[in-house]
Amino acid sequence: MNLAALIASLSEQTELQADDIVLPWPDKVLSPNSRTHWAVRSKAVKKAREGAFYATLDAGWKPIQQTGKIGLHWYFYVPSLRRYDDDNLEASCKAYRDGIADALKIDDNRFIVTKSIVSENPKKPGRVVARIHGLAN
């Protein structure tokens, strides 16, 4: 399956799967456009990273022994009808990405990241779902 077909198939799969990592909508201070004091941002990053670490373990994932690249697909379930910048959404989830990598005991540079914004039927507070593909947990 080529990359375009993989991305298209992932974009259509919005139903939760058993090993999906469900995370809260990222705190606004995690946005690259946020003008927040470094200490406030640091606290939010730590909380998000730890949350993603434990959410990954709760989803049943264990440390990964295989080498090579790993697919990581973000589903952004938006909290409102406003338009979201996909680059900022992904950047806001850097701490989540690090927490997932910590739980899997890998370097986060192994991830090949794709993303989908799910904007129909927005519900507060929103959520982010991370789906790891190309591996079995």
Query: Which word captures the global form?
Result: globular
Described by strand count, sense and barrel closure, the largest sheet is: 4 strands, mixed
The CATH fourth-level homologous superfamily: Holliday junction resolvase RusA
CATH topology: 60s Ribosomal Protein L30, Chain: A
Uncertain segments: 1-13
Give me the count of strands: 4
Q: Structural class of the helix and strand makeup?
A: alpha+beta
Chain-averaged pLDDT: 87
Strands side by side in the biggest sheet: 1-4-2-3
Radius of gyration over C-alpha positions, nearest whole angstrom: 15 Å
Helix and strand pattern: HEHEHHEE
Share of helix, binned: 25-40%
Please name the defining characteristics of this protein.
60s Ribosomal Protein L30, Chain: A; 4 helices; alpha+beta; disordered N terminus; 137 residues
Give a written overview of the molecule:
With 137 residues, the chain is an alpha+beta fold. The chain is globular, with a radius of gyration of 15 Å. The longest helix is centred in the middle third of the chain and has 21 residues. The protein has a single domain, classed as 60s Ribosomal Protein L30, Chain: A (2-Layer Sandwich), CATH 3.30.1330. 22% of the residues are buried. Helix 2 crosses helix 4. Strands 1-4-2-3 form a 4-stranded mixed β-sheet, sandwiched between helices.
